[in-house]
């Protein structure tokens, strides 16, 4: 197991470097520093001198990838790619292009509001979706199963914005059960998180129940489930003990996709509810054309996704003894 973990980490290193290079190409080749300066300074009435001053102040006056005016190692180090993208490999995110804030400090501060909204939403949503999916699988080919699937399709067909606006209007404005938006520190933040968590869980039920129901229906038709029934086990015991355990691999595979969003929170939720998390931070950076922040968040998201894949592969051996890594 240890050798497998080491190999997976070593395999991840070239992937991380490739993501870094690809991100640099997208941000520095497709989007030229002159274009970045115009978008930040304003499209109108921007003089060439102002553009050059901005590029010099923010380190964008160097060549993108190769500096032909330098000799030796400086041909590579005195470039935008090396000074802006290579430090990301050791999580030196630098400073914002627009207001010169420390991006690393902002990430450390904003990750906690994001986790505060995404962890309960993710955990409670997963439990509820698994339970409802197992109920539909238990009552398969009945009216409960049919209407449950219909309801799931209806829920997944409705936009998340509808749930957000509807929840804010009904639960926040009319019933006044929760604040519509805002955030506070410590335990006082809970009252601002309940409404977005509830809306996030409701919005995820349609997709989650449909997916997990399909997984369970496929699992209960396998030979080992038939054997368990032949031994006289009840359908509930077969479903909740044997089928659930053997269906954990596709469940874990689906869960890993959500791991980056545990740190990002929910981009839409944080924006509509004014929660100062990483999602809101990213949206604000996109709207203000602050590419240093956007570049850092793209790289951080790719790292989290790779870590999630490694954790998922390792967790396979815990839920399914048939999986072995040589």
Write up this protein:
There is one protein chain. The chain is mainly alpha-helical and 326 residues long. It has a domain at 111-276: MetI-like (MetI-like fold, Orthogonal Bundle), CATH 1.10.3720. The protein has 16 helices and no strands. The protein has helices spanning 2-30, 33-41, 48-58, 74-77, 80-84, 103-138, 143-157, 160-174, 190-219, 223-230, 235-246, 248-256, 259-264, 267-272, 278-287, 291-319. Helix 7 packs across helix 9 (190-219). The longest helix has 36 residues, at 103-138. It is globular and about 80 Å long. The relative contact order is 0.12.
CATH level 1 name of one domain? Mainly Alpha
CATH topology of one domain: MetI-like fold
**CATH architectural grouping of one domain:** Orthogonal Bundle
Q: Summarize model confidence as the mean pLDDT.
A: 84
N→C terminal distance: 8 Å
The number of E-state strands comes to 0
Describe the protein's topology.
Layout: H1 2-30, H2 33-41, H3 48-58, H4 74-77, H5 80-84, H6 103-138, H7 143-157, H8 160-174, H9 190-219, H10 223-230, H11 235-246, H12 248-256, H13 259-264, H14 267-272, H15 278-287, H16 291-319
Helix pairs in contact: 1-16, 2-3, 6-7, 6-9, 7-9, 8-9, 12-16, 15-16
In brief:
With 326 residues, the protein is an all-alpha fold. It is built from 16 helices and no strands.
Structure keywords:
326 residues, 16 helices, MetI-like fold, mainly alpha
């Amino acid at each position: 197991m240890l050798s497998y973990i080491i190999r997976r980490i070593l395999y991840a290193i070239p992937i991380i470097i490739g993501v870094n290079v690809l991100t640099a190409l997208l941000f520095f080749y497709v989007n030229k520093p002159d274009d970045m300066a115009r978008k930040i300074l304003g499209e109108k009435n921007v003089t060439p001198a102002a553009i050059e001053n901005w590029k010099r102040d923010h380190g964008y006056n160097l060549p993108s990838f190769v500096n032909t005016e330098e000799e030796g190692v400086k041909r590579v180090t005195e470039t935008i790619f090396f000074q802006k993208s290579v430090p990301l490999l050791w999580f030196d995110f630098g400073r914002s292009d627009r207001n010169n804030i420390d991006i690393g400090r902002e990430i450390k501060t904003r990750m906690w509001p994001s986790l505060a909204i995404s962890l309960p939403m993710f955990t409670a949503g997963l439990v509820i979706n698994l339970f409802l999916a197992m109920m539909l699988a238990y009552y398969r080919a009945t009216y409960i199963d049919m209407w449950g699937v219909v309801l799931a399709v209806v829920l997944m067909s409705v936009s998340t914005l509808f749930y957000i606006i509807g929840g804010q209007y009904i639960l926040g404005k009319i019933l006044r059960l929760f604040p519509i938006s805002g955030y506070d520190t410590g335990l006082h933040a809970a009252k601002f998180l309940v409404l977005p968590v509830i809306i996030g869980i409701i919005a995820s039920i349609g997709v989650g129940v449909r997916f997990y129901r399909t997984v369970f229906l496929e699992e209960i038709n396998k030979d080992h489930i038939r054997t368990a029934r032949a031994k006289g086990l009840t359908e509930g015991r077969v479903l909740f003990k044997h089928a659930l355990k053997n269906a954990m691999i596709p469940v874990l595979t689906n869960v890993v996709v959500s791991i980056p969003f545990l740190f990002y929170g929910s981009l839409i939720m944080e924006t509509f509810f004014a929660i100062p998390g990483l999602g809101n931070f990213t949206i604000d950076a996109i709207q203000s054309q602050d590419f240093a922040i956007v570049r850092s968040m793209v790289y951080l998201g790719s790292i989290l996704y790779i870590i999630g894949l490694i954790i998922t592969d390792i967790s396979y051996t815990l839920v399914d003894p048939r999986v072995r890594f040589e």
